[in-house]
Amino acid sequence: PDPHVAVVDVAPLGGYEDHLLAQIEARVARRERTLVTCITKASAEALSDFLSGHGVSSIALHSGVKPLERLRLLAQLRSGELDVLVGCNLLREGLDLPEVSLVCVLNADKQGLLRSTTSLIQTIGRAARHVNGVALLYSESGRSSEAMEQAIAETNRRRAKQLAHNERNLIVPRAAGTALGADGAAEPRAPDGGGASILEMLARGGGAAGDRGPPGGDLDGEERALYDELRAWRGQVARAGRRRRPFMILTEAVMRGIAVARPSSMDELLDV
Questions:
Q1: Which of 3, 48, 124, 198 could link 60 by a cystine bridge, Cβ 3.0 to 4.6 Å?
Q2: 83 within 8 A of 33, measured Cβ to Cβ
Q3: CA quadruple 36, 74, 260, 113: dihedral positive or negative?
Q4: Spatial separation of the C-alpha atoms in residues 121 and 243, rounded to whole Å
Q5: Residue 130 contacts by C-beta under 8 Å, 6 or more apart in sequence?
Q6: d(CA 137, CA 130)
Q7: For residue 24, what are the contacts with CB-CB under 8 A and spacing of at least 6?
Q8: Strand (E) or helix (H) holding 78
Q9: Per-residue pLDDT tens for 38-80?
């Protein structure tokens, strides 16, 4: 389900650093991952250095990182080589990061594009694939902005709907991207595609045309978050002028189909 959202007032804490570090260390102890989003590239790099200095494996992810290097860093986060990714805009990241259980938004009360209602909803959704997902919105002013209130309300609406559905259908959520071993313990799933993310599979090619429809349709929760990632990636590839013509491969219908099916191998992706 969508993650639990909490607002953290920074003023009484004398700064966010100690609180953030404690939250991250708790996740590291459980072998879970964290995403932290800042306002500027400089603050992201400074925070990453701070975390690294306290024994947390962290790196700053920003526009200067090349696409292939970005994929490598995301793979390192999944494998546990990295505990934290810090960036200014992590909306396009986290497409296939079920290990991420904590998303922290610094300066969440600031006004601007990266702290708009839509951006906050998308950022919060980065923790939706983990059964214990939590999003912390750090407020410097001690108040919640209108965008924060709207994002929290929408996330809570989705979460309530999802939990009610699970209860009604006797569904017990478990970690995405994992399978149960013979002893009942969760172990990583090893699909035919070798564990490649959906974006990696798309980068290798494949896809089919589909009928047009309204952007995202009625997708919610994890499906909406995945759809948003695909749409952002499609636009990025198109702007780069690549030959694959992503708008022909990834139609609205295909993106919605991928968001619902969550293919884990190239064959499954081609089926969509």
A1: 48
A2: yes
A3: positive
A4: 32
A5: 3, 32, 98, 99, 100, 101, 175, 176
A6: 18
A7: 34, 51, 56, 83, 84, 102
A8: helix 67-79
A9: 999 999 999 999 999 999 999 998 888 888 888 888 889 989 9
